[in-house]
Amino acid sequence: MKAHDGIYIDGAWRPAAGQDVIEVVNPADEQVIGAVPAGTALDVDTAVRAARAALPGWATTPPAERAARLAALRDVLVARKDEIAETVTAELGSPLPFSQAVHAAVPIAVAGSYAELAASYVFEEKVGNSTVHQEPVGVVGAITPWNYPLHQVVAKVAPALAAGCTVVLKPAEDTPLVAQLFAEAVHEAGVPAGVFNLVTGLGPVAGQALAEHPGVDLVSFTGSTAVGRQIGAIAGAAIKKVALELGGKSANVILPSADLARAVNVGVANVMSNSGQTCSAWTRMLVHRDRYDEAVALAAAAADKYADRIGPLVNARQQQRVRGYIEQGVAEGARLVAGGPEAPRERGYWVSPTVFADVTPDMTIAQEEIFGPVLSILRYEDEEDALRIANGTVYGLAGAVWGAEEGEAVAFARRMETGQVDINGGRFNPLAPFGGYKQSGVGRELGAHGLAEYLQTKSLQF
Fold first, then answer.
1. HSE-up of residue 113 (Cα within 13 Å, Cβ side)
2. What percent of the chain has pLDDT over 70?
3. Sign of dihedral through CA atoms 312, 316, 320, 322?
4. Residue range 36-71, pLDDT digits in tens
5. Are 135 and 39 a contacting pair, CB within 8 Å?
6. For the purposes of burial, counting CB atoms within 10 Å of the CB of 61, is it exposed (0-12), middle (13-18) or buried (19 or more)?
7. Is 165 a known active-site residue?
8. Under a CB-based contact definition with an 8 Å cutoff, are residues 63 and 135 in contact?
9. The pTM is what?
């Protein structure tokens, strides 16, 4: 795979301050496919200074021109969509059809949505005798995860640029190649030098330096709740704004009236998507006791079909973590009906599609985010019991409700403590806000709500 041996700062690729590199490994076969610089705090400082210098010019660039640069960026991504998909498949292990349909197509759609929003967003309004301005918050430090390596980059960078902010991006060390490809696309789209900067590196080094840097006005982070707490503490000490999209343990609530076969099959597919490495995955399936055994049988049969469809996990550490959770589920008394902890292949970081029955709400696998292809099926007595179980974790990122009557499902969904709920298999909407309640995060991404995260408000009284 193509990899730059430098970092992208102030419109050019340049050597990193240190000599250390990060090897990029294909998780399907454990082969090294490239290497990128391990950026240092000095590299982060150089990038932030470049972003700071570019801020006045970009912040005062007319929204229509910012929209034009984003439209050009979308067009470059469209032209390179096959390369994007192949890169994500190589460094994440995602099957190529999924990389094409999701890892390439969704970021392109999101980039296009912000090209339109930048042109149409109301940045100024009259309120009584005041004029209220929406202005860019400043320099953004964006720290992105490996599970959706381009989507998460675009979901942060595109609204930041639309708002008039400048950006320093620190991508996940497991999947940095598609971030380099994105930097090439930004350059080709004609975004001015310094407006976007890329520093590859390790989280505890480059990521922490970015979060702590006094020249960064907003830190946008997607990743684990544990790291989110650390970034929140760093930002709190400096009184700087944060946007945190963190973990999830989403409930898929199947009401007694629902089409059980459809709800179970779609629910299993949701959990197995991206090899279970999705923060919003519906990893807890809640089924009424009268239909529980039927649902378990359907889920086990559906999961078995994914054995040859899903890819590996991203690295050996993640593989061992997920296998450990499966072993813990067995030890705590849950019943395996599909899959298990044994690695299905000798090479690569594979985990079998796994389904647990007889899971109780207090079990570890029902409370903690596993981040692998593991589904827990819980039974409930009535709707109040289902609501108690659905809301009974520290997370609140996403969820689903199924019912024969849409109104019945919506009424239940309104009582769920979570940021996004799909009703009867509702489709993904790149314009709808995405983000969490409780320990699933602070702030929203996507659409106009995502753009608003990168703005601050000033009122002028006349």
1. 25
2. 100
3. negative
4. 999 999 999 999 999 999 999 999 999 999 999 999
5. no
6. middle
7. no
8. no
9. 0.97
Q: What is the mean pLDDT of the chain?
A: 97
Strand-by-strand arrangement of the 455-461 sheet: 124-127, 130-136, 455-461
Check 91, 173, 245, 453 and give the catalytic one: 245
The 10 Å Cβ neighbour count of residue 294 is 13
Please state, as a whole number, how many other Cβ atoms lie within 10 Å of the Cβ of residue 445: 22
Q: Is it the case that residue 1 has pLDDT exceeding 80? A: no
Q: What is the tens place of the pLDDT at every residue in 115-159? A: 999 999 999 999 999 999 999 999 999 999 999 999 999 999 999
Max Cα separation, the chain?
72
Residue pair 254/402 in contact by the 8 Å Cβ criterion: yes
| Residue 146 main-chain phi, psi, to 5 deg | -95, -15
Do residues 352 and 345 touch, judged by C-beta distance below 8 A? no
Active site residue 65: no
| pLDDT (0 to 100) of residue 306 | 97
In contact, 13 and 204? CB cutoff 8 Å? no
Tell me how far apart the alpha carbons of residues 252 and 212 are, in angstroms, rounded to a whole number: 38
Buried residues in 178-192 as b, exposed as e (16+ CB within 10 A): bbbbbbbbbbebebe
Q: Which residues pair with 12 in a beta bridge?
A: 9
Reported as a pLDDT band with limits 50, 70 and 90, residue 15 is very high
- Tell me if 25 sits within 8 A of 315, measured CB to CB: yes
Closest alpha carbon to 220 in 248, 240, 250: 240
pLDDT tens-place string over residues 404-449: 999 999 999 999 999 999 999 999 999 999 999 999 999 999 999 9
Inter-residue contact 142 to 283 (CB < 8 Å): no
- Annotated catalytic residue: which of 279, 369, 408, 445? 279
Give the angle subtended at the CA of 242 by the CAs of 275 and 66, to the nearest 5°. 85
Question: For 333-377, what is each residue's pLDDT tens digit?
Answer: 999 999 999 999 999 999 999 999 999 999 999 999 999 999 999
Compute φ and ψ for 157, nearest 5 degrees: -70, -45
Q: Do 89 and 96 meet the contact criterion of CB atoms below 8 Å apart?
A: yes
Listed in sequence order, the residues at least 6 apart from 111 whose beta carbon sits closer than 8 Å to its beta carbon are: 70, 73, 74, 77, 154, 158
Token match 């929209």: residue?
67
Surface-to-core class of residue 96, CB atoms within 10 Å of its CB (0-12 exposed, 13-18 middle, 19+ buried): middle
- The backbone region for 315, taken as left when phi is positive above 0, alpha when psi lies in -120 to 50, beta otherwise, is beta
